[in-house]
Specification:
Layout lengths: L8 H23 L3 H20 L1 H4 L1 H36 L6 H27 L2 H15 L9 H17 L7 H25 L1 H33 L4 H40 L4
Helix pairs in contact: 1-2, 1-6, 2-4, 2-8, 4-5, 4-6, 4-9, 5-10, 7-8, 7-10, 8-9, 9-10
Length: 286
């Protein structure tokens, strides 16, 4: 009999929970009033993709790769709305602190954001209303209905240890002044390692839970760094040649650069704690 760490049950249970979470969020996303509904649907999509990756051995590479491509398509439509919402929320708060003539370029920028959000929203609704979306949901339900019973060749703790090893390699390769793309790559790998650890927690226990706690903190730090990158890139793209707007947008960009610098420093402080938790959780499973 395989150990608990080598059974497919945790993977199938997680896939079922994430599919249910995705479908539960869809009505709220369609209404479009609560950004939290959109965020949770995006999280469900990301977790589905990550868990499918972990289940490649039991579900088959062809099935997993096809489903992950379709989930990536759905996630891109959700992410486009989320990015505009992120920028809008930030700019609205900053403009709210201005007064008099200084508010006019901010108001123009917010109108531009409203137009961009409408376009992103139209695309998201078209995605959800397309024949491709229900076909994806049907395929996911079919895959879950198969309920594979054969044991995994690699246990879930071993899989988590492998994902952790990839994180350490990525961090070791970072230069003294890492780029936004390099830090984003680390963030993606930390996220995968966290999801793999959650799947393995039933077999590993408290060390895995402690690793997940630290991974969440690092993920949040790098997530805030990436948010600053998204805002900065958007403002770069829409900078207005008129003096007032240009000055405002450059001011906002400057604040995001400071935010990025702060988050890089926070990552440097937090990383040793995650590394210690990783060694304790996965040294025996490597």
């Amino acid at each position: 009999m395989p150990s608990d760490g080598a059974t497919p049950a945790p993977i199938m249970t997680a896939l079922q929970a994430q599919l249910e979470a995705l479908l539960a969020r869809e009505p709220g996303v369609r209404i479009g009033r609560d950004p939290e509904e959109l965020r949770r649907m995006r999280v469900a999509v990301r977790r589905l993709r990550a868990t499918l990756r972990a289940g490649r051995e039991i579900l088959g590479s062809r099935v997993v790769d096809g489903l992950r491509r379709e989930l990536d398509w759905l996630g891109a439509a959700l992410g486009a709305v989320r990015d505009v919402d992120l920028v809008t929320s930030y700019v609205a708060a900053e403009v709210g602190e201005l007064s008099g003539a200084a508010r006019r370029p901010g108001a123009r920028l917010l109108r531009r954001l409203e137009i961009d959000r409408a376009h992103a929203w139209d695309h998201l609704l078209a995605t959800l209303d397309s024949a491709r979306y229900p076909r994806l949901m049907s395929r996911l339900k079919t895959v879950l209905g198969r309920a594979p019973r054969r044991p995994l060749a690699v246990s879930l703790p071993e899989s988590a240890a492998l994902q952790w090893k990839k994180v350490r390699r990525a961090v070791k390769r970072l230069p003294a002044r890492p780029s936004a793309a390099e830090l984003h790559e680390v963030r993606v790998k930390v996220k995968r390692a966290r999801y793999a650890a959650e799947l393995a927690a039933g077999a590993v226990g408290r060390p895995a839970d402690r690793f997940v706690e630290q991974a969440k903190r690092v993920q949040d730090i790098l997530g805030e760094h990436q948010d600053a990158v998204v805002i900065e890139e958007y403002l770069h793209d829409v900078i207005d040649g008129r003096e007032g707007a240009h000055a405002l947008e450059q001011q906002l960009i400057g604040r995001q650069r400071k935010r990025r610098k702060k988050m890089r420093a926070a990552f440097d402080r937090r990383w040793p704690k995650l590394e210690r938790r990783g060694r304790k959780a996965w040294s025996g499973a490597a």
